[in-house]
Amino acid sequence: MHFHPDRGFQHKAASEITPRDVYERRRELLKLIAVGGGSMALAAWAARDAQAQTARPNKLAALPATRSTIAGGVTMDKLTPYNDVISYNNFYEFGTGKGDPVQNAGKLKTRPWTVAVEGAVKKPKVYDLDELLKLAPMEERIYRLRCVEGWSMVIPWVGYSLSELIKRVEPTGNAKFVEFTTLADDKQMPYLGSHVLDWPYVEGLRLDEAMNPLTLMAFGLYGEVLPNQNGAPLRIAVPWKYGFKSGKSIVKIRFTEKQPNTSWNLAAAQEYGFYSNVNPKVDHPRWSQATERRIGEDGVFAKKRPTLMFNGYEPQVGQLYAGMNLVKNY
Ligand SMILES: Nc1nc2c(c(=O)[nH]1)N[C@H]1C(S)=C(S)[C@@H](COP(=O)(O)O)O[C@H]1N2
Ligand SMILES: [Mo]
Predict the structure, then answer these.
(1) Cβ proximity of 246 and 236 under 8 Å
(2) If both were cysteines, with which of 63, 65, 216, 303 could 291 make a disulfide (CB 3.0 to 4.6 Å apart)?
(3) Cα of 328 to ligand 1 centre, how many Å?
(4) 65 CA to middle of ligand 2, Å?
């Protein structure tokens, strides 16, 4: 059990959220999970937690049964306060300021929602969100998130390994890469006209990266349904890569033979490579990647925490890149 007795799972910024807000969001998650009748572990946990809310309105109960114990899924780092996680975001479809997504994503309609899984697979299928929610047991995974801009967070996600979905669609021998397309709806996303990027936002992984158990399909964070600004109703979380590799509000997952063209790579190839593994020794052309600023923790002097190779997940993913030149394949 890796539940920390002091930190627990309480909202660090509880003072800034009313008990009622928290309780409502808990109920929302519970309802969401209850629809399919699947994911009983999470449903039971959410139910118990919703109950706990009435007794201890600001606190979340511990999650012993669903806490992931896979190596790398647990970090000793302190969780980033909930309020920072949900109000300091990159989601350019809703604006390029860190505070824009929380302001503008509120009305994003996350239901009904489907994800088309297609391409080089034996069983292509358009999945409904309800089906995805019960596809595999939900786990809580505490991951570091390192943005290419030089800041980081520690976020307790709720979800399951993307490999669970990949196994079910049975990739063919031609499947070498996986392409993720995120929602692009100009009626709901006010900044699609901004041309910062070519929309929709597209990201990609090599198939073996996508199959690695660390690669998560996240549906929640801090035990709650994903806030829209964090990529509701589902996003990818690839903790050993810079944050932009983790697409939000995913609508399509496509298996391909050729390496996908990804949005940031198309926008500035010298700055944002296809791999974009966190690497303190490979600097961004315009700044060092040796250190990072932990949001909610460090003061204005910023970047003093050393950045770790593969964001600290080298034991889990280092072998994926054996023999590869990581300077060339940045
Ligand atoms: N669709 C979409 N996904 C996206 C982005 C984006 O602008 N649009 N930004 C990325 C970047 S740069 C980061 S650092 C993470 C931020 O995730 P968070 O806001 O949940 O911390 O989302 C990534 N996924
Ligand atoms: Mo980022």
Answers:
(1) yes
(2) 303
(3) 24
(4) 32
Q: Which ligand has the nearest atom to the CA of 145? A: 1
Q: Is the distance from the beta carbon of residue 92 to the nearest atom of ligand 1 less than 6 Å?
A: yes
59-93: per-residue pLDDT in tens?
A: 323 333 334 434 344 447 899 999 999 999 999 99
Helix (H) / strand (E) element for 294: namely strand 291-294
Q: Which domains does the chain carry?
A: 2-321 (3.90.420.10)
Q: Where do we find the tokens 């920390």?
A: 4
Range 11-26 burial, b when 16+ CB lie within 10 A, else e: bbbbeeeeeeebbebb
- State the Cα–Cα distance between residues 55 and 93, nearest whole angstrom: 39
Ligand 1 atom with the shortest distance to the CA of 101: 19
CA-closest candidate to residue 214, choices 62, 319, 89, 304:
319
Q: Which residues of the chain have pLDDT under 50?
A: 1-20, 23, 35-41, 43-45, 47-75
Q: Give the model's pLDDT for residue 301.
A: 63
The answer to whether 82 and 13 are in contact (CB under 8 A) is yes
163 marked as part of a ligand binding site = no
